[in-house]
Amino acid sequence: GAEALIESAETVVGKTVPPKVRDWLVRFVSKFIGSFVFGFIDNFIMVLAGSHIDAQFGGVAGAMVGSAAAPMMAAGLGNTVSDAVGELASNSIESAMDKIGLDPEAVTDEQVAAGPAWMRFMDKQASVIGIVLGCLVGLFPLFLEEELKNEKTI
After folding, report:
1. Taking CA 153 as the corner, what is the angle to CA 149 and CA 154, rounded to the nearest 5 degrees?
2. How many helices (H) and strands (E) does the chain have?
3. Residue 57: which H helix or E strand, with range?
């Protein structure tokens, strides 16, 4: 799991990571991965569900909230579905992380607090970085939809 990832990086760079940094990287990856997966699932499903809701019920939504607000209603309903799926998947995500050896407790909060400023900053921001990147990657169905529209018009 995480150890193999770090060992691969060490092989590529040709240097061994000091044990404290190695343990910190496991903690960072542990915090990052769960947030990344959640962000990906959240936006991926929101885009798909929102598009489907808009396509199927756009006229109904337009009659309910007005045609200008219908896409936002579809997006909101898609977000509701994706949040529910994300919450349902959270236990599976945590279980998978445990199975591959990602343990955020490999380094204690006290050890991080005693580390350099960059380590403290990255530790505090690992979840935010993971969610932002996961959400951005989760938007890729938008590009597929655009590609499909372009193919249909040709």
Report:
1. 120
2. 6, 0
3. helix 19-65
| C-alpha to C-alpha distances, 52 to 79, 81, 134, 147, 151, nearest whole angstrom | 12, 12, 21, 17, 19
SS3 at position 107: coil
- Identify the residue whose tokens are 């655009």: 146
Residue 25 near residue 6, CB atoms below 8 Å: yes
Amino acid at 34: G
The pTM of the whole model exceeds 0.85: no
Specify the DSSP element, H or E, that contains 111.
helix 109-114
- What string of pLDDT tens digits covers the 154 residues of the chain? 667 777 788 788 887 666 577 778 888 888 888 889 889 988 998 888 888 877 776 666 556 656 667 777 778 888 888 888 888 887 787 787 777 766 667 677 777 777 788 888 988 999 999 999 999 999 988 888 766 666 666 5
Q: Is 99 left (phi over 0), alpha (psi -120 to 50) or beta?
A: alpha
